[in-house]
Amino acid sequence: MKRAMAGLVAAVLMVMLAGCADEPTLAAREDAELDQLSVRAVELQGKVASTGRMTPELRGELTVLVQDVEAWQARTSRTDITVSRTGPADDGSSATSPLISRPGPTCTPCPLVKTFGNQVCFLVSESPCADGLIAKSCAYVCLTRTRSITATPAPTKTPGKS
Question: Residues 143, 35: contact at Cβ < 8 Å?
Answer without folding.
Answer: no
